[in-house]
């Protein structure tokens, strides 16, 4: 008579078929995908920063931190130099110089880039040395005094910037695979202290370090090359112009923004598990007992036959007889 038993099997609130469990699974899958995509996009933009200005290929040649234009510089050695605009190539210089993470490139306005220096780890841009080495015999130029005074600071800042960009790129790559591990399909109140201290908090700190390295390198680059530009343009009588590379600045700050999103979601998950677990709400809804154990509906003790007898009234007819 069990075929007449229409009672549905009881399910736990946290079982795989419950609506709460299904919704939780969908949420954590979407969060994992979103976090991975954020770090993946950050990695793409960081790679563009790292390979910018390596050579004269399209995109790379227009990705630089700073571009110095010397095409209209006024040399000291020319008589009545104040009244003359002399081309840079007449004294052995190139029309422009642009700086990347690994090297510098130079060229002429009508030709483009003609030479890029060899790639160098912890590269730092020394305009005084580069320009003096290229001057023709007997030619001299006047550079703003602030350029020479700031070379020591520039060297140190460039080394830190180089190290932070490379370390940030490596950690961002690892975050694509590690950061999604911080999201679980289980209810927040079901996590134990071991998971919190050995997974949630370490992953939050990991994404924080990744963000600090990326944003720190971007901030150092922005400040340092902005100062460089201002120093070169501080002497308008020399006709030296300088401009920041907008694509490079955009790439590195967009990468920092995506890493910030990944860190914020990781922090929100960690805080949700540690502080805002929703335990009180689960107790009120009957999904959790006051002792912290999940509540499951106990099956009834009566058999299927007893249920069928009670449903069709056979027991009552026997009693009446």
From TrEMBL:
<protein>
    <recommendedName>
        <fullName>Integral membrane protein</fullName>
    </recommendedName>
</protein>
<feature type="compositionally biased region" description="Low complexity">
    <location>
        <begin position="10"/>
        <end position="22"/>
    </location>
</feature>
<feature type="transmembrane region" description="Helical">
    <location>
        <begin position="203"/>
        <end position="228"/>
    </location>
</feature>
<feature type="transmembrane region" description="Helical">
    <location>
        <begin position="248"/>
        <end position="275"/>
    </location>
</feature>
<dbReference type="GO" id="GO:0051285">
    <property type="term" value="C:cell cortex of cell tip"/>
</dbReference>
<feature type="region of interest" description="Disordered">
    <location>
        <begin position="1"/>
        <end position="23"/>
    </location>
</feature>
<keyword id="KW-0812">Transmembrane</keyword>
<feature type="transmembrane region" description="Helical">
    <location>
        <begin position="29"/>
        <end position="54"/>
    </location>
</feature>
<dbReference type="GO" id="GO:0005886">
    <property type="term" value="C:plasma membrane"/>
</dbReference>
<dbReference type="InterPro" id="IPR009571">
    <property type="entry name" value="SUR7/Rim9-like_fungi"/>
</dbReference>
<keyword id="KW-1133">Transmembrane helix</keyword>
<feature type="transmembrane region" description="Helical">
    <location>
        <begin position="160"/>
        <end position="183"/>
    </location>
</feature>
<dbReference type="Pfam" id="PF06687">
    <property type="entry name" value="SUR7"/>
</dbReference>
<dbReference type="GO" id="GO:0031505">
    <property type="term" value="P:fungal-type cell wall organization"/>
</dbReference>
<keyword id="KW-0472">Membrane</keyword>
<dbReference type="InterPro" id="IPR052413">
    <property type="entry name" value="SUR7_domain"/>
</dbReference>
